[in-house]
């Protein structure tokens, strides 16, 4: 549930601002909103200090093996790393300078600009040129010596040497190369020394990596100091008083009142208004707690004035996850990885592991119902027969037939098929096309129908919830939500008719007419008819969108089916190799890659489609904007 909040304003003596903030921070129950734009030298200094420590932390490599740290404290480590970074920067600059010099002038051999200048003082001129190799290179002074040295990035390099009072002139175009700042030997030595310094720096950074935890603690302290200064700078103040404002969970206001009385603060507590940007603090039940991990990953939160849909989101996300991944083996693999990680991290938050247990369990159950285990079939691997629960006599017949119905093909065993066919024929609501004509016949329409059923149930929950909310607010637009609910069911029947061949019930058209009338009459409150009249003509487009919302759920079938098809296709291609040890080994290597790719695609499908159906289609039906931001109390990082 979304925790009720109170808007609180605290006034204290400006001379006691720091002590008051320390007290408030130690409580950790107030989300502070600045009353003015935080600025100031103290804030800038704290920000720079935090950035300094952050940079040091990012510089230190991760420790691959456990190693003993040095005797240095955290601040000493930060200072040493900063000095090392300066040494590394100078060394990198030296290497860059040396590389530029060598790249341009190394072609001239052991060139020394001091020697060239010494020759020039004695009347011997040396000039360096670069030109295209295929073009002519001519000097006006026929006695000048032209020495080609080779090609560089600027072309064919030559040196022109002559005696006289001035350098020899060229009669053809060429690029003049100025003398380097240093000799080639200097650049080589510079580079060699800089590389040695870099190696020493990297070695020392590797040694200091064992102290990374100390730097992390320093960053927490620096971050706390910055948050403290930011909060202080955001307070309103006069010569005598200072004020701070924010939000506090309603259940903890008593603590704030007690502290305010003891500290001599003036305290005002009021209910937030619709205009207030109130943070959202979600309180999870045992059922919805696994959603905490998913919300953190996606980075979304309902607005304070919206509703908490965690439980519904979790239930349907589990179903969508299972249908997209859809394989018992994949579910078992995820479960094994989760159990291993849990064993290695026993003190980690349980919500993430609970979430994964639920996803793994749902995937395994759906895989069992769907008879999917790495896409194997008994004709390729005989032992896979025993993985299909429908082959066991102890399974109740209605459950067996239900499991066979949800699969993409009918049973292949003739005797089992006849029993299953008779069971399907008893359901008169399905069109004739839903009854398989022969053993092993395709029945993909069954899964598609199941997707549409999921759609109408999911969207019905959204619309009914929206109706209840608006009715409680005494908002006349709740009748429009009744219209959207009726429209949703009409679109469900229309989708079944157009895609699966169901007959459209006689009451479908009158149902749609009633829905349309309700939408036209109640979509816009009478008080806002002048401002929002344009939304009435837009209803036609929104009605079409409601059809696409229902159709959209068929993506669960398409994505899940694609993964199963890939696995089955490769199993079929590689099945001739299963007869020998070498063949089995080769096929196993290929299948390992294929299933790895399949798992990656399935997880991408979950990230795109399972999340979308909850945050878009379902949320649209509930008018849920996910406009919230997390409650972040003023407190120390260590708390």
TrEMBL record:
GO terms for molecular function: ATPase binding; proton-transporting ATPase activity, rotational mechanism. GO terms for biological process: vacuolar acidification. Residues 184-211 form a coiled coil. Its main location: membrane. It is a multi-pass membrane protein. GO terms for cellular component: proton-transporting V-type ATPase, V0 domain; vacuolar proton-transporting V-type ATPase complex. The chain crosses the membrane at residues 312-341, 353-376, 447-466, 478-496, 502-524, 536-558, 578-603. This is V/A-type H+-transporting ATPase subunit I.
């Amino acid at each position: 549930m979304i925790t009720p909040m109170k808007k609180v304003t605290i006034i204290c003596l400006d001379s006691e601002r720091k002590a008051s903030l320390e007290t408030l921070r130690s409580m950790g129950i107030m989300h502070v909103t600045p009353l003015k734009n935080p600025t100031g030298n103290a804030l800038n200094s704290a920000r720079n200090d935090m950035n300094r420590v952050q940079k040091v932390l990012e510089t230190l490599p991760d420790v691959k093996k456990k190693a003993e740290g040095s005797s240095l404290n955290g601040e000493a480590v930060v200072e040493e790393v900063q000095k090392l970074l300066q040494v590394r920067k100078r060394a990198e600059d030296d290497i860059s300078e040396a590389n530029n010099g060598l790249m341009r002038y190394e072609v001239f051999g052991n060139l020394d600009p001091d020697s060239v200048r010494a020759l020039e003082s004695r009347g011997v001129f040396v000039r360096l040129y670069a030109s295209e190799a295929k073009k002519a290179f001519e000097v006006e002074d026929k006695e000048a010596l032209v020495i080609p040295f080779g090609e560089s990035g600027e072309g064919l390099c030559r040196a022109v040497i002559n005696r006289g009072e001035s350098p020899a002139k060229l009669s053809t175009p060429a690029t003049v190369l100025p003398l380097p700042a240093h000799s080639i030997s200097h650049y080589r030595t510079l580079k060699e020394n800089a590389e040695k310094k870099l190696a020493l720096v990297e070695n020392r950074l590797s040694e200091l990596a064992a102290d990374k935890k100390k730097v992390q603690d320093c960053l927490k302290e620096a971050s706390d100091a910055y948050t403290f200064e930011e909060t202080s700078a955001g307070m309103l103040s006069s010569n005598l008083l200072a004020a701070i404002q924010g939000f506090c969970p309603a259940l903890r206001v008593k603590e704030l009142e007690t502290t305010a009385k003891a500290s001599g603060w003036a305290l005002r507590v009021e209910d937030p208004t619709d205009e207030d940007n109130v943070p959202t603090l979600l309180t999870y039940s045992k059922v919805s707690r696994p959603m905490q991990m998913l919300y953190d990953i996606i980075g979304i939160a309902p607005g304070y004035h919206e509703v908490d849909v965690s439980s519904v989101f979790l239930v349907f996300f589990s179903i969508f996850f299972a249908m997209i991944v859809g394989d018992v083996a994949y579910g078992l693999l995820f479960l094994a990885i989760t159990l291993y990680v849990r064993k290695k991290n026993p003190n980690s938050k349980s919500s993430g592991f609970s979430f994964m247990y639920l996803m793994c369990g749902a995937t395994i159950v759906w895989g069992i119902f769907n008879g999917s285990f790495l896409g194997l079939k008994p004709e390729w691997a005989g032992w896979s027969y025993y993985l299909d629960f429908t082959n066991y006599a102890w399974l109740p017949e209605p459950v067996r037939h239900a499991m066979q119905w949800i699969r993409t093909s009918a049973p292949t065993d003739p005797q089992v098929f006849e029993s299953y066919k008779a069971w399907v024929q008893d359901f008169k609501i399905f069109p004739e096309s839903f009854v398989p004509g022969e053993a092993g016949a395709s029945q993909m329409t069954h899964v598609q129908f199941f997707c549409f059923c999921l759609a109408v149930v999911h969207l019905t929950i959204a619309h009914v919830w929206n109706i209840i909310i608006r009715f409680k607010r005494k908002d006349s637009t709740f009748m429009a939500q009744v219209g959207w609910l009726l429209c949703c069911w009409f679109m469900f029947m229309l989708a079944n008719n157009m895609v699966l061949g169901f007959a459209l019930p006689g009451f479908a058209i009158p149902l749609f007419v009633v829905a349309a009338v309700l939408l036209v009459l109640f979509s816009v409150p009478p008080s806002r008819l002048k401002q929002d009249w344009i939304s009435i003509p837009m209803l036609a487009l929104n009605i079409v969108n409601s059809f696409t919302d229902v159709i959209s759920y068929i993506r669960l079938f398409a994505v899940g089916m694609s993964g199963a098809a890939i696995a089955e296709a490769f199993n079929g291609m590689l099945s001739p190799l299963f007869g020998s040890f070498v063949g089995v080994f080769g096929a196993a290597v290929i299948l390992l890659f294929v299933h790895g790719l399949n798992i990656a695609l399935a997880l991408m499908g979950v990230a795109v489609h399972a999340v979308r159906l909850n945050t878009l289609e379902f949320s649209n039906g509930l008018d849920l904007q996910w406009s919230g931001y997390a409650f972040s109390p003023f407190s120390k990082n260590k708390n």
